[in-house]
Amino acid sequence: MPAPSENRLSPPPLTLRSLPAWIGIAFGWTLARWPWWLARRAGVALGWLMRVTMIARGRVARRNLALCFPERDAAAREALWRASFRSLGISVFEFLRAWWGPLPPLDDGVEILGLEHLRAAQAGGRGVIMVSPHLTTLEISVRLLSRAVALAGMYRPHESPALEWAVKRGRLRYTLAMYTRDELRPSLRHLKNGGVLWFAPDQETRRGESVFVPFFGQPAWSLTSTHQLARLSGAAVLSLYYERLPDGRYRIEIGPALADFPGTDAIADTARIMALMEQLIRRAPEQYLWVHDRFKRQPGVTSAP
């Protein structure tokens, strides 16, 4: 099913203002074609560089880890903080590879578990919503999964027209469509037609209907979109988990359909989804995107515009 915004896939014009973005895209396209053994080593080095230069984001990650893992001592949290930057560096090359590069050898030995849950949920032509956390293997895992599952995705568009065009064009190599959060009607149509829609609902965003629910024991401003989409479309909701294994292979796991979802209470349903996201993150916490300021907005505190 084509996305309604696919007619915007003509490349934007090259201007002086967009020149840096186009140079970055060309550089990224080149990196996406590096031999993977070299790209992975470069990713480890990049992770170290990001750790020592991204001071503000490093503080955010440390604060998040302190809030989410109070049961761990300072040394354990520091080790997790360092490991998360290593994973973040590797993920840069995984993202580039997913968008613009060849898949081999990243598809060697990939495990895809739980396809039976997806097939059961699709019985009778029912649509399926798959939700996952922002683990750093997100993009490459969805590309790997797309070999077995035809799916569309929801995403936040880039502010740069050049980058938006290049990334969306890359994603449409392995998805049926990519919908923005404003494209509610076409995403509902996709689900009502029996399609699979994937998105990651675990980040704070200024747009969309959100509520405060617990996330790692902390109040977190969280999108109610899973509840709303399931209620309006009648789709089943399944979890999607992915991780980079120690030997470099990837494991992707689809969970069973959530029972009695959606309910009548958007807040309760959103809390249930965030608890599910937390459960998945705890399986490989070093691969989560801790540099995102997840707890920036708090109850009773007005956030900066």
TrEMBL record:
GO terms for molecular function: acyltransferase activity. One of its GO terms (biological process) is glycolipid biosynthetic process. GO terms for cellular component: plasma membrane. It comes from the Bacteria. It is found in: Cell inner membrane. Keywords: Acyltransferase, Cell inner membrane, Cell membrane, Membrane, Transferase. Pfam families: Lip_A_acyltrans (PF03279). This is Kdo(2)-lipid IV(A) lauroyltransferase. It comes from Arenimonas oryziterrae DSM 21050 = YC6267.
